[in-house]
Amino acid sequence: MKLPEYASPLERVWHYTYLFICASIFLFLIAPIIIIIPLSFNAEPYFTFTKGMLNFDPEAFSFRWYADIVRNGMAAPDAVMDSNWWADMWNNAQWIRAMRNSFFVAICATILATALGTLAALGLSRPEMPFRSAITSLLISPMIVPLVITATGMFFFYSDVGLAKTYLGIILAHTTLGIPFVIITVTATLVGFDRSLIRASQSLGADGWTTFRKVIMPLILPGMISGALFAFVTSLDEIVTVLFLADVEQRTIPRQMWSGIREQISPTILAVATILVAISIFLLTTVELLRRRSERLRGMTAR
Amino acid sequence: MSDVTADAGPSGPLLAADGTPLKKKLAQTTRQAKIRALLLTAPLVVFLLAGFVFPIGQMLWRSIHNPAFSDVLPNLAVALKTWDGGGVPGEDIFEIAVADLKQSREDRSIGRAATRVNYELPGSRSLFTSTARKVNKIDGPPYKEKLIELDKDWDDPVLWSILKRVSNDYTASFYLSAVDRKYDVNGNIVSEAEVQQIYVKLFMRTFWMSALITFLCFLLAFPVSYLLSVLPLRTSNLLMILVLLPFWTSLLVRTTAWIAMLQSEGVVNDILVTTGLVGDENRAQLIYNQTGTIIAMTHILLPFMILPLYSVMKTIPPSYMRAARSLGANSLTAFRRVYFPQTVPGIAAGTLLVFILSIGFYITPALVGGQDGQMISNLIAFHMQSSLNWSLAAALGGILLASVLILYWLYNKLVGVDNLKFG
């Protein structure tokens, strides 16, 4: 953004003020996320920068909270690091357990949400689809309805049918919450989809499944993967239904953080948060790359 | 294919290849295509109806249907329905009451009914539990006299009028409680006592805080979105990462980050103290109160405002502003009269989305809200998990859901759900 030649002094002042305002807002957006990274290497059990950290004293930094992620809950954390130690960590460490739960639930929910969501998005984007707007509203509504209401409803229903306090119950709940994201991303990819490709494929003798696999799928794959990643993150991050539906057995990372924040706040939470931020950065990069690829594929070059 | 359609003269109807009239054939094909499209969405629609819509409906049902009393004391409930009301009933109803109370003692179920009556008549819980403990002493008539001997409260006409009311499984009293009203003895709707009026206030606070958060998001999102929309794509893509990274970061991570930032020994206060803006002894209380909730929620919801605004602003040609300037408008007028009106669709989309999402927030207020930063969702969760007044939780949820759905309908009208996009 350049200042035009004819700008008056007042406009010049405003221009730089404006840039300053924008910089502050970007700082507001990113600062909290950046700040937890150095804090997680704190050698002291505090949530704030110590004097030593500000002076870049290497003594003030440590990996103890990362070690704590692995050790917390283990039967014998100081034993020799042999196969028993690893088994102990894998089975007993609270955070490791939570991570296993989180990833298991998230992967299952993602597969379900992506399969159901893509199918529905294909239907929704057909020009002859009846009741399109009503059905779209229904499919997006899990994103809009307050989570407490969703979780309450599911709590009663899942208790009745015996799904409360089971992995399957949480997987189904997370599938429900992930679906809107899959619908939104896949329909967005299908907007620019050239429907004559389908007719071309059919006229060349392909049946429905072949057309989907060889023509539609490669074109909407970026959208499907973005949708799947959105659903994955939603599940990984979801806590309200877990609070209502899960037992100690099914504790996920957010559930563990929740009790950490409420009961015994320690920088271990910041270490976990840092790991989660790293995961977010990785997923965000993937989605961005996919989005660009999809735009290229559809012939919509970046302006 | 013999060209039947072309051969049909102006006299006969147009026919398709298999001899059916073309009009009918077309209608048939369209219907088949519609059914095929519907079938594709069917699995998901069924899944959501069964696993999402039905459970919520079932939950809302609890807000008007509470059979606790008639479950525990079934015969008494039936008898009270036919009783004409007014005063204290006669011996026959007391006989049934004693029998039902004896049964409930055996089933150890009296607590549920006692709790149900207690919602309507606070303080009456112990009457039921203590009577159920002693009811086996009554071995024969006169039941009325003996029951009143056990506890003279059974001679209270107010109690009986309320028992008659709760003997009906369907009730509006939980919705009344949710808006700080109740039935008085005569069945008229009156306000709760001043000190017990909490729900309307909480609804107002939820709406007020959401409105403030939405406004703050708008204030912060507008300049940033404009900058992103006018910068060359390479730079704006880079800056966009700063918007999308918070969007992709876990809610709990962001809430934790704000605790680290805002607590009294936190980063913000340390900076304020180091720069001498605030003395070390009076550090600002920025978290575990309303301020904390508002700051954290604004941060969390800001991307939901920036993304729709940005996608609208990107489509506004910069030449419009230049044209306005060349026609003699100063920069302020050009912005106000030419640029701003074109951003209104984006503003509508972002504002509605942020407002809808913020009135249902639960986690952030629960963690950083302290006392005065709580929202209506937190109270619903409280009644679900701690006080176990599920019917009241359902009634509060019903009101919250109704407000959200109205806004969602409005969003659909003004913006259209299919215009929802991320990134």
Summarize the model shown.
The model of chain A has no long low-confidence stretch (mean pLDDT 88).
Count the strands of chain B?
2
Q: What is the percent of helical residues of chain B?
A: 55-70%
Q: Which sheet architecture does the biggest sheet of chain A show?
A: none
Q: What is the number of helices of chain A?
A: 13
The total number of structural domains of chain B is: 3
**Helix-strand pattern of chain B, N to C?**
HHHHHHHHHHEEHHHHHHHHHH
Protein described:
Chain A has helices at 9-39, 51-54, 64-71, 83-92, 94-124, 132-144, 147-161, 167-191, 196-203, 208-237, 240-245, 253-262, 268-297. Chain A is mostly helical. Chain A has a domain at 96-297: MetI-like (MetI-like fold), CATH 1.10.3720. The two termini of chain A are 16 Å apart. The mean pLDDT of chain A is 88. With 423 residues, chain B is an all-alpha fold. Chain B has three domains: 4-61, no CATH class; 68-171, no CATH class; 199-419, Orthogonal Bundle (MetI-like fold). Chain B is 69% helix and 1% strand. Chain B contains 20 helices and two strands. A two-stranded antiparallel sheet of chain B has the order 1-2. In chain B, strand 1 (181-183) and strand 2 (189-191) form a beta hairpin. In chain B, helix 11 (199-230) packs across helix 17, helix 15 (290-313) crosses helix 17 (331-359) and helix 19 packs antiparallel against helix 20. The longest helix of chain B has 40 residues, at 22-61. Residues 1-8 of chain B have low confidence and may be disordered.
